[in-house]
Amino acid sequence: MKRGKGMKFVGDSRINAESTSTVPKDYSEYPGRTEAFWPNFLLKEWLAGSVFLVGFLTLVLTHPSPLEGMADPTTAGYIPLPDWYFLFLYELLKYKYASQDFILLGVIVIPGLAFGALLLAPFLDNGPERRPNKRPIATSLMLLALVATIWLTYDSAGAVDWEARAEANKPIPASEVEIDTSDPGYAVYENSCMSCHGDDLTNGAAGPPLIGIEHTTEEIADISVNGIGDMPADVFQGTDEELQQLAEFITSVNEQAGE
Amino acid sequence: MLQKMYDWIDERIDITPIWRDIADHEVPEHVNPAHHFSAFVYCFGGLTFFVVVIQILSGMFLTMYYVPDIENAWKSVYYLQTQVAHGQIVRGMHHWGASVVIVMLLLHTLRVFFQGAYKKPRELNWMVGVLLFFVMLGLGFTGYLLPWDNKAYFATEVGLNIAGQVPLIGDWLITLLGGHPEIIGAQTLTRFFAIHVFFLPGALFALLAVHFILIRRQGISGPL
């Protein structure tokens, strides 16, 4: 051994003179046609990568990344949801034997066993066989875990009305809207609408934000009386003049927000 | 000109062996989709790395606008999303990349698992790969809070509560992650930012380096 002489650190020190079984077979020992990585195979990889990138960018361009309203710890009744790839862990905690008195099972034991087994898979499944049908225990456990994960995710995501969620939590820059509380329409709003839509029209206990809507004054007046979607009819109590003031007030706030 | 520059460097630091270690190897037939189309399953790992590179680049550009404090975090994201040219695209790449990378990672893991490619002598590389999976989930969890919108805030509240259920070290864990045993606020956002931008990427790079060095040293597993 003359390591270090001539500064051949990488090329010469990489493979031990006494080669053991951990050294991979030379590719010439594989049957069939090998191909040089550089540049032949890399060019093809670039092609596959480009196709992937086009698909990815199409997704990005057609689906703008979501943003909800600014975090407000006092928002009542907000139903928290983690990102989709944590939903299975979240859903697990809703089962009887994974919550309450058994919370340790749901938080530590079950995920710990699953991920621990994943980490230690080479030592748990340490036979020489590589084909999935020759190692039925490992294969079936993985399939079981996969089905359970997909089912939990589906169960959790399927119960959510994603469009209504997005609609109810639109981003509104707080600084841009100043509510004119001396407006006669505001007094009407205070009486009839505020309990559901919040004191600054951004949203409240039950109603969606009233800023960023695209209704005309007449439509707003109509909705106030007749309701829309989950909103019941006859929420508004007052005279026709007050109704007109209310609708104009909401329109004016929207015009101001749109500027 | 380029050749002369290369020779100049090579003469001094003997760069050719390094270069040959990285690029000069043969790709066996059984992993080459040009010969067997079903070999596309071997692309998942490379595509995962490709999305990781997208995440690193788009994340670097996001930090040019993002402000990690509770007054301005949401506003800076909103500004980026609505006012900055192509800001929506860069944020979109980072947002969707976070999901796509999990999908590719899962496919890559399943490929390796069902082919039994983690068997001797590749146990270490499998474990490094699973650790990479954990790091990636951590990046997803911490990155979710950063826009500081309602979704982020309440999901983090739940996440930290779950972390608090861990026996013995629960409270300690919450304080470590969130900066305070009860309040989710300014310190939480700053800590999550630090974890997302410095700590976890550091671990990610180190593990990726080991992952790639091991695959080059051991070669890809043979055909089934």
From TrEMBL, chain A:
Gene3D superfamilies in the record: Cytochrome Bc1 Complex, Chain C (1.20.810.10), Cytochrome c-like domain (1.10.760.10)
GO-annotated molecular function: electron transfer activity; heme binding; metal ion binding; oxidoreductase activity
Transmembrane portions of the chain: 46-63, 102-124, 136-154
Keywords of the record: Electron transport, Heme, Iron, Membrane, Metal-binding, Transmembrane, Transmembrane helix, Transport
Cytochrome b/b6 C-terminal region profile domain residues: 27-154
Chief localization: membrane
InterPro entries recorded: Cyt_b/b6_C, Cyt_b/b6_C_sf, Cyt_c-like_dom, Cyt_c-like_dom_sf, Cytb/b6-like_sf, Cytochrome_c550/c551-like
Entry keyword annotation includes Cytoplasm: no
Residue ranges occupied by any Cytochrome c domain in the UniProt entry: 180-254
Location within or outside the cell: Membrane
Membrane topology: Multi-pass membrane protein
CC annotations in GO: membrane
UniProt-recorded name of the protein: Cytochrome C oxidase Cbb3
Species annotation: Cerasibacillus terrae
Automatic annotation (TrEMBL), chain B:
Name by which UniProt lists this protein: Menaquinol:cytochrome c reductase cytochrome b subunit
Membrane topology: Multi-pass membrane protein
SUPFAM superfamilies: Transmembrane di-heme cytochromes (SSF81342)
Domain Cytochrome b/b6 N-terminal region profile: 5-224
Assembly: The main subunits of the menaquinol:cytochrome c complex are a Rieske-type iron-sulfur protein (QcrA), a cytochrome b (QcrB) and a cytochrome c (QcrC).
UniProt GO BP: respiratory electron transport chain
Essential cofactor(s): heme c; heme b
Keyword entries, A-Z: Cell membrane, Electron transport, Heme, Iron, Membrane, Metal-binding, Transmembrane, Transmembrane helix, Transport
Transferase as UniProt keyword: no
Matches recorded under PANTHER family: CYTOCHROME B (PTHR19271:SF16)
Role this protein plays: Component of the menaquinol:cytochrome c reductase complex.
GO molecular function: electron transfer activity; metal ion binding; oxidoreductase activity
Broad class of the protein's primary localization: membrane
Compartments reported by the entry: Cell membrane
CC per GO annotation: plasma membrane
Origin species: Cerasibacillus terrae
Transmembrane portions of the chain: 39-67, 96-114, 126-146, 193-215
Cited InterPro entries: Cyt_b/b6_N, Cytb/b6-like_sf, Di-haem_cyt_TM
